[in-house]
Fold this protein.
Amino acid sequence: MRVFLTGASGFIGSAIIPKLQAAGHEVLGLARNDQNAVKLQAAGVAVHPGDLAEPETLAAGAAACDATIHCAFIHDFSQFVENIAIDRRAVEAMLGALEGSGKPFVLTSGVLMVDAGREATEEDAASTNGPGAGRGATEAVVEDFAARGVQTAIIRLPQVHDTERQGLVTYAIRAARENGVSAYVGDGSNRWAAAHVDDVSTLYRLVLENGEAGARYHAVGESGVAMRDIAEAIGRRLGLPAVSIAPEQAMEHFGFVGMFALRDAPVSSRLTRERLGWTPAGPTLVDDLEDLQLADA
């Protein structure tokens, strides 16, 4: 297949590219500037100029290909609500261009968009309340198009990591350096799900090739890593003490990540593994934090 990939030059997108190429797929990557275009060309990827804020450019890329994987998102959390709106318009444009085509469309979402109050599963709809509600509404748009002739699927990401990047944990590392302590809230027993980027990129290929229309998939290798364990691993690597802070200090210490610092959000990927034969085997989040590349952290 010829696959249109948004976010192609990003952390996860750049890991997806070789997995698709090794399986015989051709990749058309979205590039919003010359620097990203050069990076994609070096990876053997055809370049499609465009920008999330220009949805017609994404619609054209999707229409020109056999399948679409949408990984792009503007990670400026000071304008989170605005960026969710930009993303949804881009998704709606791509799906509009694909309506009735039967082509696969894979949306990237997040496990923190689900507020199940227990271990979340693929059967749980995204929350309509709280910080994840906006992206949850985008999931609903995608699910609607499963009945409109698009083979849609949703991949929900946890904290995706290697030794250079770790999702929201990357911001916790930055906060530890700025504040001189690696913090967790309360007793730190609340959990975040995680997965290594190599396992996650493999799942994208599996969903693209074998995903069920309208299905949700959880790219989760570890169902829940305690925040205290995360903070202590960061502290060991940076040579800083790991300390407990009160809930009211979370926003001051972590910045925007403080919105999620109290969340206990364990997530199951049992159905994903059963449906696709996906067997994550990469290093754990704590392993990668112990081997953190400090120059790039």
User: Anything to note?
Assistant: The CA atoms of residues 48 and 146 lie 26 Å apart. The chain has a mean pLDDT of 94. DSSP finds eleven helices and twelve strands in the chain.
